[in-house]
Specification:
Layout lengths: L26 E6 L3 E6 L6 E7 L6 E4 L6 E8 L4 E11 L4 H10 L4 E6 L11 E4 L6 E7 L10 E6 L10 E3 L4 H10 L1
Parallel strand pairs: 3-11
Antiparallel strand pairs: 1-4, 1-7, 2-3, 5-6, 6-10, 7-8, 8-11, 9-10
Length: about 190
């Protein structure tokens, strides 16, 4: 008999007191994958990250969004032998300066981790932040700018995706103790 590695172990119910709210806040953090020194996971729930420790001198970089212009998602990918996940974060970059063009040119071949913040936080803030690409890193798969796009006003459209190396799990929750503690860790990255 083949080994079956998974099974559901709790009810999947809606929370009437804390109904889901769609959308992400207008700030995300991008971390160079190679700048991560270590990750601290919750001892009992490996889907929960307590902290991300960066190499000395490294820092995360902020993305300012507008009206849900930071669009993360995760999708199950059915491979030949294993099921994995695509992590994807689409952003609009509202800076088209020569410095930003140089920055984006330099980043085309990199790998990244992106942390986003949901409007929905959950009862204690445990669902507010999510980490995309933590195991394999995200790559640029789209870098496009249409100067005549009235909707984006000519912003850069950038998509970060697990192009070749898929993630083994859904995006991790980023949470330690409560929302305020987690937000302080997020802000300090």
């Amino acid at each position: 008999m083949a080994t079956i590695c998974g099974k559901i172990n709790q009810n999947i119910k809606k929370d009437c007191e804390n109904p889901l709210t769609m959308g992400t806040r207008d700030l995300a953090k991008i971390i160079n994958f190679s700048d991560i020194a270590s990750v601290v996971y919750d001892a009992t729930n490996k889907a929960q990250v307590l902290d991300i420790i960066l190499n000395s001198g490294a820092s995360a970089f902020e993305v300012d969004g507008v009206s849900n212009s930071i669009r993360p998602q995760a999708m199950l990918v059915d491979g030949t032998y294993f099921k994995k996940f695509d992590h994807q974060v689409e952003i609009l970059g509202f800076d088209i300066s020569p410095e930003m063009k140089e920055n984006l040119n330099a980043g085309v071949e990199g790998r990244y981790v992106v942390i986003t913040e949901n409007y929905f936080q959950g009862p204690n803030g445990e669902s507010a932040f999510e980490v995309y690409g933590l195991t394999t890193g995200l790559e640029f798969t789209v870098l496009n700018r249409n100067a005549n796009d009235a909707e984006t006003q000519g912003a850069f459209a950038v998509t970060f995706l697990t192009k070749n190396n898929k993630e083994p799990k859904l995006p991790n929750a980023f949470f330690d103790t409560d929302y305020a503690t987690t937000k302080a860790i997020f802000d300090a990255l």
